[in-house]
User: Fold these one by one.
Assistant:
Number 1:
Amino acid sequence: MKIQERQETDVLVVGAGPTGLMLAGELALAGVTVTVAERQQVPSGQSRGGGITARTCEILAMRGLLDATSERAVAREAVGGHFAGLPVPLDTRPWRTRHPDGLLIPQDRLEQVLETHALEQGAIVRRGTELTGLAAGDSGVDAALTGPDGPVVLHSRYLVACDGGHSTVRKLTGIAFPDGRGQ
Ligand SMILES: Cc1cc2nc3c(=O)[nH]c(=O)nc-3n(C[C@H](O)[C@H](O)[C@H](O)COP(=O)(O)OP(=O)(O)OC[C@H]3O[C@@H](n4cnc5c(N)ncnc54)[C@H](O)[C@@H]3O)c2cc1C
């Protein structure tokens, strides 16, 4: 039987979607060692999200990421909002923001910006690496990962579930997912 290698990091983020990548960048910026495990070998190139709001633009600007995001955005008329890509007239003047119209940007392009930023801050992004099991103890979490180099156990002080709506972490930890009707 192959002995699993054991590695360490402060924080393991599971999932390299926009949530995991943004968090990884923030943690690395704060001097925390962070590893992101993402089961997809390469970004899918698919885009569910199509746009970001004024507040998201403000946060990206605070991190110096708005220019790179704007360069990848889709040109459109300034309409103030959208639903499923369709313009929605919205009076944003009361928001007093520099970015009242948000940006129309496919999610995968924004993920490129966030992943580049996270890597530049020192985060490690391990693609093709799937979380398959975990065990919590007093000193943190042992995560079983299956990646290109085989199985590995990564010990972290904290593990953050950024693995989407069908979260493996949620299922492994037995956290319920009530459907809004209390079921
Ligand atoms: C049709 C549709 C339209 C949408 N439109 C918009 C929009 O216009 N604007 C907007 O802001 N949002 C929109 N959204 C919502 C947006 O897509 C989600 O909020 C966003 O994807 C959530 O990001 P996330 O990082 O939390 O999760 P996800 O994007 O789901 O990323 C989770 C990641 O975890 C990885 N993963 C899962 N399991 C494991 C595992 N066991 N091990 C390792 N990795 C794993 C997955 O491969 C994935 O890359 C839309 C969603 C849908 C479905």
Number 2:
Amino acid sequence: MFRICIVGCVWLLGAFSGAAFNRALAETPAQRGDYLVNTIMACGNCHSPRDATGKMIAEKAFSGGLTFDTPAFVATAPNITQDKETGIGSWSDAEIKRALVEGIRPDHGHFAGVALAAIMPANFYKALTPEDLTAVVAYLRTVKPIRNEVTDPVYKAPVRRDPYPAAEAGFTKAMFAEPVGRGAYLVTIGHCMECHTAWSRGVSDFKGGLGRGGRVFPAPDGTPGATAANITSDPKAGIGAWSDAEVGNAITHGVSRDGHALKPPMAYKYYAALKVTDLADIIAYLRTVPPLQ
Ligand code: HEC
Ligand code: HEC
């Protein structure tokens, strides 16, 4: 009896050691998707409704959010809950993936096959690994259905998405083996540089102005809002002279080095839940962004 137990226990230990044990502890795709959507990808920053004070309405998360009124289009971030009629509950996994990485709606239903306005960051999500893309969809399937129809978009010009060089090039396995590569991936799928890159007449200058900032985001009441900061490694204009702790504090707590509280749309409330290791990788990558003034 005793011997059987020993044999059995050793076998159990063996089964749960090494790779098997790691797998047992590893996240499910839906858990990984939950982490991505609610931290670095901050989908709710656009897709979730807010109350009059600008606070997110948690119980209505993902049921439709901000309206973007630009010279090229007026579009409201739609309901992406699992509601079959007003959300994406009747879309197949492949259709959701296509919307995320190509920015094209399904070939059936409302606005069939029509490209989504460029504000939906598909040109950045293009970089998602197949596993992470599957994980995001797995999580979206767990979002409880809420009935809410948003106003239809109006397109005034053809949709033009500025290609983001890192997403076009893609990420290889070797890049995930070192902090700068992992950080570059997170900064890409977090579309940080969409806001933080020099921007003129609706065109992002990813080649000449990566990280330089300067883009102005009007506040919802029409008053001048926030200007995206220079986050290049320049020691004066950028964050080159900041300590890792200072950069981390800005990203996750919304406090700049000079102590001012960062205004929206900087999504630090989402980034607050980033894993310590992911934050360190993001900072490692930002250190490599060429200095610009
Ligand atoms: C910067 C704001 C923004 C962010 C961040 C964002 N979206 Fe969107 N998304 C939009 C807007 C606006 C539209 C609608 C565009 C249009 O109508 O042309 C849209 C459209 C969509 C659609 C198509 C829905 C439909 O009914 O046509 C899906 C699906 C979607 N987004 C999912 C996501 C997911 C998942 C994330 C996070 C991984 C995300 N979005 C992040 C703004 C955003
Ligand atoms: C939707 C637009 C948007 C996105 C996405 C965004 N930011 Fe920001 N960020 C801003 C704006 C606007 C400010 C300036 C806010 C202010 O000064 O009130 C800012 C400020 C910052 C600052 C503080 C710099 C300083 O000088 O005070 C850092 C660091 C930063 N962002 C890093 C990031 C990183 C890293 C990401 C991606 C994980 C990111 N941001 C994503 C808009 C954005």
Number 3:
Amino acid sequence: MVLSVLTDISALYELAPYVGSVFQHPKSQFYTLLTDTEIVFACENLGLDRGDILSRFEKTVTALHLEKLLGKSLFALSGGEKQKIACASVCALMPDIFVLDEPTSNLDIGTIRDMQAILMDWKRQGKTIIIAEHRLAWLCGIADRVLYFQAGEIALDIAAERFWALPVDEFHRMGLRTFCEFSPAAKLGQIDSGNLELFGFRYEQKNEIILDIPQLSIPKGAIVAVLGNNGAGKTTFARSLCGLIKKAKGTLCFDGKEYAPEQRMGLCYMVMQDVNHQLFSESVLDEAMLGIKALPESREAMAEQVLSDLDLLDCKDAHPMSLSGGQRQRVAIAGAITSHKEIIVFDEPTSGLDYRHMQEVASSIRKLSDMGKTQFVITHDPDLVAACCNYFVFMEAGKVVCSGYWNETNQKYIADYFSGL
Ligand SMILES: Nc1ncnc2c1ncn2[C@@H]1O[C@H](COP(=O)(O)OP(=O)(O)OP(=O)(O)O)[C@@H](O)[C@H]1O
Ligand SMILES: [Mg+2]
């Protein structure tokens, strides 16, 4: 019924009441400055009645557990919190058609479960939902039909039950993720070259403690998964570690030397959660060459090798901003590899990546580990943790609540955390 209405629509603005969308980068769709005003913006824009808007607002806040985010500036939100608000504004709008572009790429497990419940509710109300996704497991039991795209064309159009019944190999051949039990493959090898010691990591913002890690030891050379819910303080921890937050306190001991925050920029490299902030060059090749200190002719060859490892060689002349989200992410990773820093921090490096590219990122991280680098991988992606991390840190409300190797207890702890995905 709805789709037949759409055939009569010629102007884009006429679509607005019927179609609500969540973009891949939530920030690019924000119109206001505060969480509350953003949630109701689309409803106000359509001139809905005040009482109706208020009741939609309250329903949305309850369904997505947004109470703690109300009244906050959109600029003070974590990556996942921003994504929650983008989902909330479309949720409040309640159009007939929902178009969601990787709505869960930065979300924690609890919020994905909230999204599942919301989508089921939309379905019961007869809404049409179109979702572009790499994380597929949460859609099992929700999606009715699956379209698989290849080079701009629909290569497969199949009923969901038949899709879920495909063998695992077939999923991987198509570059898709499957859902398996969480079982980390990477074991920490002979790493007895000492520890990284962190002391007094602390950061407060408007009297609110955002980060509080009195002491933490990390085996040098480890690949550390930094885990925890949206807003737990993972990105804040990473930025403090790299010396990128001026007011954050904390000392890092590495190879018997103490580093204050401002000294750590020469030691640490960070691949940001939103990589758009760190790509500056005119071409992918230039970007990859930025950190290479060598003769011009060898710089190019070295950069090309890294690009080739990351499946980016074909687009070496392209402008980084003309690439897809996943490709841009890999360009930023190329920069980390060529920087030759000792500590590398990846903030959600595989959000928005398919199975094959997730594996490539894991393989680059393992390669960096072979080169002796110590790495922190902030992620909500159990596949990535299983593929490359050999140590973990679990954060809650700015604190480290648990950390260690993959012994049986720790493995079960994290498997329970990721269960159902
Ligand atoms: N400038 C700021 N002012 C006030 N609060 C802030 C500011 N920056 C971050 N916060 C808050 O600090 C908390 C930690 O944010 P952080 O970005 O470190 O979370 P995160 O664990 O990386 O979450 P995600 O998984 O969603 O990326 C969040 O609740 C966030 O709202
Ligand atoms: Mg973050």
